[in-house]
Amino acid sequence: MSKKTVASVLVAGGGIAGMQAALDLANSGFYVYLVEKSPSIGGVMSQLDKTFPTNDCAM
Amino acid sequence: MTVSEIQGISGEEGDFEVRILKRPRYVDMEKCIACGACAEKCPTKVSNEYDAGLNKRKAIYVKYAQAVPLKYSIDSEQCIFLKKGKCRACEKLCPAGAVNFEEKAQEITINVGAVIVAPGCEAFDPATYDVYGYGKSPNIVTSLEFERILAATGPFGGHLVRPSDHKEPRKVAWIQCVGSRDIHAGSRSYCSGVCCTYAIKEAIIAKEHQKGALDTAIFYIDLRTYGKDFERYYNRAVDAKVRFIKSKIAGITTDPATQNQIIDYIDESGRRVEESFDLAVLSVGFRSSQEAITLAERLGVDLDQYGLAKTSDFQSVKTSKPGIFVCGSFQAPKDIPHSVIEASATAAEVESVLAQSRGSLVRTKEAPKEKDVSGEPPRIGVFVCCCGTNIAGFLDVPGVVEYAQTLPGVVFADKNLFSCSQDTQEKMADIIREKGLNRVVVAACTPRTHEPLFQETVLNANINKYLFEMANIRNQCSWVHSNDKDAATQKAKDLVRMAVSRVGLLEPLYDPEISMNNAAMVIGGGLSGIAASLNLADQGFPVYLVEKTDRLGGNALNIHKTWQGEDVQQKLGEMIGQAASHKNITVLTNSELKKVDGFVGNFKTTVETNGSERAIEHGIAIIATGAVESKPDQYLYGTDPNVLTGLELDSRFNDRGFSAEGIKSAVFIQCVGSRIKERPYCSKICCTQSVRNALRLKELNPDMDVFIIYRDMRTYGLREELYRQARAKGVIFIRYDFEKGLTVDKDNNNIRVSFTNYALNRRMEIRPDLLVLATGINPIRENPLATLFKVQVNDDGFFVEAHAKLRPVEFATEGIFVAGLAHCPKPIDESIEQAKAAASKASALLSKEKVTVEGVVSRVDEAYCVGCGRCEQACPFNAITLVTREGGNKVSYVQEALCKGCGSCAAVCPTGAASVFHFDDQEVLSMVKTAFE
């Protein structure tokens, strides 16, 4: 159990799920590499107009 | 790391080496100022994937105006120079010299303790099927294309028109389950889980666009609005006259004369009907992309039959490979809040695996030293942002700059192309230092998104971050007055003058730090409470797990199996054992909370255990008090022993002595007391539970006739597989007409269920030996925790999270979290995920020695306070209490950690003793005064 572990994490995918996981880990004391295949993060959610059921702007 | 891809992995949990290919962007991110000159001149136009192919972009591009990072990149597959060796127009035109065709791909290796896989899913391509006519007319669009049509940033500027002739449609149809719940090649047999609700959303928004003068119809199989507040959303659509047509689609053809879509469908009674619409929207489902599958293969993660990551119900974010976790739609189709919860759950898992090394690689930024500017006369700098063309395109930015220079106290004013770009941030900090500025105004977009960024810029120039003010000349000016440049310019000048008048009066403020007790209290010893406690305890935090009854386990003690068939009693038993023996967990059964004092980091809670009270100090609290199965007062429940609720049947299955031999027929009635006026929500779990239990009955006695009488079958997501299996095994599903009623009575000692079959439109009767009522989930009425922690419940009685999408486990009050059924009905896997998500959010606080709270809080000048207590009553956060000073004077006292700086106290204070830092009367009134100058 006392094996040494590395305090950094790789998150593959910069959509809403990947970004949230990265934020949580960074806020909790871990170094995060957020890897995204396209030129910018945001994923599919950035393409949505509004979100249900509150009709909030997705952006 | 953008434009990057994982190539391979070696090592093991806690210590992986990951190889990453960083592809060339051909644009230097440090140099690019995102001015767009390159894209303007780029000769190559290609389909714009961000707008779902509805318009074109250039080969050098940013995905959208708000993209992060806001840096251009060159699409190497489309760039003429990269393909044919000629052009380089962008390189010549770039004013920043950022284009670099010499950039090469490079492979780097990084060392990490864990990996989270979140590649998402792609939308089904309906061109695979000719039945939907996709590609034959521009007026047959996917739901994602329709999102872009509705969006203000989309190809039609948010004007709802159909692509063929840019005319406003009068009739729009949505076709559900395109590529989902379909076993044909190319489709997925699962339900994509989100399409019903997004179609409702699109229909509601489309109607709003057209001011209601739009006929909308949704063609569906089952309407699956199972999430929190989704059923209300559906009811709202029904009230707004969105038509819902249960049907099977036979085909969509285009009328060449009108470019209208003729939808050919079979209605529920089997009639073939045709109806013409101006626009048809295909509600496409999710499927895993080839890239995601390749990624999983490279990481050595097992996939299921759909090409999604394989997980179990009790460990739903763990992949087959230790140290690699999964979240989002690649785990299973899901909506945004569930993705956010799951993301936090993966974070919690990683935090527990890597707990001992926490903090060892974190780079903390040294806070810049602040210059003391007190006593100095204001030296104000004004930066006016062009926001590309967002502002400069609609008002005279140089004119505003010139005007700002004439205002009192202003010693510097200039414009920026993009104030938020990294290079501009540095430039601004340099100017603040050079010119000796001590107050700064940025006239740009909204402080809601950009104030923290500019406050940091100011701080980096050694100025207190509260000596800063924003004037919103975009959202509140250039955007709304885009057709009147003179008026917009004048308004921008007014807004800048107001901001300048206020900024000169601002005083430095300091965000108070409060100490953090690193113990957690989890209230509720059900599955969610246990899961949250175990995760936090594994992360090394002391946990007090408080349970009202004499044993841990909650509702799960009665559940037979999860939807995937995992043995709940075995898994629950293991978890209870771990919690009971964990060195960091103190289990308090027969215990209830009596009193809660304090605030984040410093709660002091009185817990009563078997009649004796103790005070426990803790830093955070997780509310996981669960819910109860509703007990019906109808359908012979309680009078006939053969009438059971769903959970009671589960409980019978757990009983080893249970035999189904004497049962020749069984009926399940769905939505008993759910989706009705008095309880207008769907309990989410009951359809799956009934299908699973129907299958179990068939397994125990294959000759049994099993009927499920339903309104809509809501076996959402991958649970659709169970529904398919049940039909294959001969379970009979009958949709009944809810309006025409369903009765249960006794006929010659037999149970008699009578209802109207929807498809046949005729009354039917069944006389089952066993009647199971799917009764849904009730919140705990008048939950004392709502009062003790001062947190809200919704109209249904479930706790209200801070934000439905992005903060689904937090309360508005800091340091308090929610998980499980107390939040809304949900199954075991989702309850555990939410519990872990709450633990992740909690650990972000618990892992710190101190947390800072907002400096904008209210204050009470005791010299003027008369102790009337009005502010105490007005405060929505219970931050104000009356205290007695020496001599018996009562005065108001503000607990800064609880105060949100809303100003309610200042508004009601009769003497002016209460005010809010940063927004005192003088600061606000000077803006009002100057507005009318």
Automatic annotation (TrEMBL), chain A:
Transmembrane segments: none annotated. GO terms for molecular function: iron-sulfur cluster binding; metal ion binding; oxidoreductase activity. The keyword Metal-binding applies. SUPFAM superfamilies: Nucleotide-binding domain. It holds the Pfam family FAD_oxidored. Keywords: Iron, Iron-sulfur, Metal-binding, Oxidoreductase. It comes from the Bacteria. This is FAD/NAD(P)-binding domain-containing protein.
UniProtKB/TrEMBL annotation, chain B:
InterPro entries: 4Fe4S_Fe-S-bd, 4Fe4S_Fe_S_CS, FAD/NAD-bd_sf, FAD/NAD-binding_dom, HdrA-like. It comes from the Bacteria. Pfam families: Fer4, Fer4_7, Pyr_redox_2. Coiled coil: none annotated. Belongs to the HdrA family. Gene3D superfamilies: 3.30.70.20, FAD/NAD(P)-binding domain. PANTHER family: COB--COM HETERODISULFIDE REDUCTASE IRON-SULFUR SUBUNIT A, FERREDOXIN:COB-COM HETERODISULFIDE REDUCTASE SUBUNIT A. Keywords: 4Fe-4S, FAD, Flavoprotein, Iron, Iron-sulfur, Metal-binding, Oxidoreductase. This is 4Fe-4S ferredoxin-type domain-containing protein. Residues 22-52, 70-104, 856-885, 890-919 form the 4Fe-4S ferredoxin-type domain.
